[in-house]
């Protein structure tokens, strides 16, 4: 099992550009999550999904969108990148209490 | 409003000694608590957890203690090893009505350095 995979590992965007962060899991987990981590801060939940076709907002959803068309994939879309979105983004999946995290995507918006 | 707080940004201990990482929470509806460990350039990995119906859970060198009346939990690592040097996050889960979405609320993290 590859677990939770994320692409790309690094990305630099210009203000106003858009991009999609990819996340996939091969553990057949129903629940998936997107977090961002800013320096010196904990992980903040952006969006989550309890199954294919079902998504909901977390703590900090503004500026992001998600979709969940399959159990395996949970992409995160940034439509108009802003410097405040410079962060490390983690995707996670879970079936019970424990969440399994991907390696992260480091995004810089200049 | 920070519902889960780790008030110590960093901790330094000598190899072989005990490391104690602390975490406070404000929401009495949290029913499950977890500790995650994170190395640089990697995602967090699960370390140990505890249900709110227990006050202690042990796994090898790692023990988590829960004091519900004080809304406080702690992670003890004995003996500490240099490989334990990482950022440790505590996290809490709460039910929303009758549904469990598995959502976690994380503390800010504590950087542990274990010196050889």
Quick structural overview:
The complex is a heterodimer of chains A (110) and B (116). Chain A is mostly beta strands and 110 residues long.
Description:
The complex is a heterodimer of chains A (110) and B (116). Helix content of chain A is 0%, strand content 52%. Chain A contains no helices and eleven strands. The termini of chain A are far apart. Helix content of chain B is 0%, strand content 55%. In chain B, the strands form two sheets. In chain B, strands 2, 4, 5, 9, 10 and 11 form a six-stranded mixed beta sheet that branches. Chain B is globular and about 40 Å long. The model of chain B has no long low-confidence stretch (mean pLDDT 93).
Strand content range of chain B = over 45%
Q: Given the structure, what is the number of helices of chain A?
A: 0
Biggest sheet record of chain B: 6 strands, mixed
Radius of gyration of chain B: 14 Å
Proportion of residues in extended strands of chain A = over 45%
Number of helices of chain B: 0
Low-confidence stretches of chain B: none
**How many β-strand runs of chain B?**
11
* Low-confidence parts of chain A: none
Q: Tell me the series of helices and strands of chain A, N- to C-terminal.
A: EEEEEEEEEEE
- Using a beta-carbon cutoff below 8 angstroms, give the protein chain pair with the largest interface and the number of residues from each chain: A-B, 26 and 24 residues
Q: What is the 3D shape of chain A?
A: globular
Broad structural category of chain B: mainly beta
State mean pLDDT of chain B (0 to 100 scale): 93
How helix-rich are the residues of chain A, as a percent range? under 10%
